[in-house]
Design goal:
Layout (H helix, E strand, L loop, with lengths): L2 E8 L3 H19 L7 E7 L8 E12 L2 H10 L1 H9 L2 E14 L18 E9 L4 H17 L5 E6 L5 E8 L2 H9 L3 H12 L2 E16 L14
Antiparallel strand pairs: 1-3, 1-4, 2-3, 2-6, 4-8, 5-7, 5-8, 6-7
Length: 234
């Protein structure tokens, strides 16, 4: 079954951050040469928890799809591009996931193969959108309120915002204890619900994708701890 990985890297020194920034232009060629990798994206992050248009030069991410989790682990251990990220980074974390629902497209593709059956245990939610330039300012004006609400919710286990292009491409990723908890947050009236209504009514996005995943395992740490204590660690 297809495995989806989200690898996060934190770079502390100026030299490491310059190296990571350069990889946004060059690492794609090394990744394309690995036949085991299907869909992949190199992403930067925003300041704070990533939900801002101001770039965070310390945090980068690689999202990729693989034939299975064992293949993903093998390639990450042996491929020079992944070893380079790990060597330069002060902290790394990779989440191994299986998609259980996906709708929409990312760069004109439907990258995630959907597994049958409900998600048991923690659920990861990924939203990726391409903003229409004319509404970018309105979108980013709403983001601080949405981020504050998510951050204040005691149920969210992990959250980060990343993206391919500052201002216009945004990926939000969060992990919740279970499907019901995530659904309760999404339906609750507030900045998030109002933003969702505006997205639909005003057609903010020129392309969007929504996916839900089970979290199969986690390696490494983020901010000094494992993102989940409730999942099986690899």
């Amino acid at each position: 079954m297809q495995s989806v990985t989200l690898s996060l890297y934190r770079f502390d020194t100026v030299a490491a951050r310059l190296w990571a920034f350069g990889q946004m232009a060059t690492a794609r060629f090394a990744l394309k040469r690995r036949p085991e990798i299907g869909f992949f994206k190199l992403c930067g992050s925003g300041t704070g928890e990533g939900f801002t248009p101001i770039p965070n030069t310390a945090v980068y991410a690689i999202l990729a799809t693989w034939p299975d989790a064992d293949t993903a682990r093998r390639v990450m251990a042996e491929a020079r591009v992944f070893r380079g990220y790990a060597a330069w980074a002060a902290e790394t974390c990779t989440l191994f996931m299986t998609s259980h629902s996906a709708r929409g497209e990312w760069s004109g593709q439907s990258p995630f193969e959907v597994a049958e059956g409900p998600i048991e245990g923690p659920i990861a939610a990924l939203t990726r959108a391409t903003l229409r330039p004319a509404i970018a300012l309105r979108f980013w004006n709403r983001v601080p309120d949405i981020s504050e609400v998510i951050g204040a919710d005691p149920n969210v286990l992990f959250k980060i915002g990343v993206g391919e292009v500052p201002l216009l491409h945004q990926v939000t990723f969060s992990i919740w204890p279970d499907t019901q908890t995530m659904a309760n947050f999404a339906r609750k009236d507030g900045p998030h619900a109002r933003a969702i209504r505006a997205v639909r009514e005003e057609r903010w996005f020129s392309e969007e994708l929504y996916a839900r995943f089970s979290v199969d395992s986690v390696t490494g740490t983020w901010e000094g701890k494992a993102p989940l204590d409730t999942t099986k660690k690899a």
